Amino acid sequence: MQQDILVNWSPQETRVAIVENGAVQELHVERTLERGLVGNIYLGKVARVLPGMQSAFIDMGLERAAFLHVADVWQRQPEGEPPAVARSGQPPVPIEKQVFEGQALMVQVIKDPIGTKGARLSTQVSIAGRLLVFLPQDDHVGVSQKIPPEQRDALRRRLNKLVGSDGGGFILRTNGEDASDEELAEDIAYLRKTWTRIREAATRLPPPALLHQDLNLLQRVLRDLVTDATQTIRIDSREQFALLSEFGREFMPAAAAKLQLYKGERPIFDLYSVEEEVERALSRRVDLKSGGYLIVDQTEALTTIDVNTGGYVGSRNFDETIFKTNLEAAQAIARQLRLRNLGGIIIVDFIDMQREDHRDAVLGEFRKQLARDRVKTMAGGFSQLGLVEMTRKRTRESLAHMLCEPCPSCQGKGTVRTSRTVAYDILREILREARQFNPREYRVIAAPKVIELFLDEESQHLAGLSDFIGKPISLQSESAMGQEQYDIVLL
């Protein structure tokens, strides 16, 4: 497999496409104005200590002071003892005895500012790498709880050997479960080098100062997305190419060697029709080359994918047609999961197959394609109803949630009531109002299609209601209204 990474940079947005064997497999988007502060490390200055709230406000040079609660003030516990908070149910040391006004304090953002509230802070620093999380104030070596228990002890022993006695704690992330010793050692070196740079900055910069910013998408390309299969990383900004090259040479020299500046006249995303792929990834229907198609429906609880034969007619018989369509669908579904970044529970409804060897072949192809996904997936077999249930770890917002918002007309339902349904709702509402009020006239303000219906096919019913209640009913078309919206004004 050959992989290329394309980077399209602009001041407002960075987009990264991962192309494998000529087909777009993943799309990552980061918008400058939507970048949060979580993970950033600052040298702040204690602006105010509030003993009554057991908290302090920290000036970090932002618009609003940030909030530090005593529960988020890190304290080293004697070895073998549980944390003091757990022992007594109360904070072990009051905050006024731990921090004082004017003190310079290294803090990390654990919650972004919301509305009028400032960011929430912790004095326990953690730095995320590609495979590991580094806890420089601890000496504990741990393994993610999401990794099966039977594998944790062996992974912990491997990690202890690699960490050595240079200090600091490490936690192996879920995606580091299958990593080689070489990859883990590279991540350990990167994290320790990052911590050294943070400490050096803390000694020479006056507070408030930003000591470490969580990596942006461009930097995460080198840290998280580059693999042995990656041939090139092409970027269309000369300035960002220079910055990324410098970052890569210091922290990830092997990945930085694959960087190339794209100088072509065509937009870089036109090389592999990335824009068209984005458009298709936001569509409910995905057409297959054979003539079949997928229907992808994303809800809060789960995602459903339905496979249909469409216009595909097999060359031999119906069973062969279904088998070929399902095989192609298995490949397309795995790709759509990555491209759309769908996570959580996913239900796939393949077309029913009578032959067991066909079912086994489709399931085998599906699992083979899922194995190429960098995000952890788990797929079961066919259920009694012929469905395949699977899960895919949620790593970030799906592409649709990032690029789209619910339709203001249908409020995300995907359908709106017909103009006739709305017209009959209006007639019932006028009758309800007539029993409670005695206006001179009723005025209906509604969408143009609803008003047209009243003037044409439903004019007789409207006139009949007007005669029944003994009041005139006037109509006003409002193009800005959605089809389900209307107002009844009492004049």
From TrEMBL:
Keyword Magnesium: yes
Organism of this sequence: Ramlibacter ginsenosidimutans
The protein's name in its UniProt record: Ribonuclease G
Lineage top rank: taxon: Bacteria
Domain S1 motif: 37-124
InterPro entries: NA-bd_OB-fold (IPR012340), RNA-bd_AU-1/RNase_E/G (IPR019307), RNase_E/G (IPR004659), RNase_E_G_thioredoxin-like (IPR048583), S1_domain (IPR003029)
Entry similarity comment: Belongs to the RNase E/G family. RNase G subfamily.
GO cellular component terms listed in the entry, alphabetical order: cytoplasm
SMART domains, sorted: S1 (SM00316)
A biological process from GO: rRNA processing
Location within or outside the cell: Cytoplasm
Gene label: rng
UniProt cofactor(s): Mg(2+)
Gene3D superfamilies: Nucleic acid-binding proteins, Ribonuclease E, catalytic domain
UniProt keywords, alphabetically: Cytoplasm, Endonuclease, Hydrolase, Magnesium, Metal-binding, Nuclease, RNA-binding, rRNA processing, rRNA-binding, tRNA processing, tRNA-binding
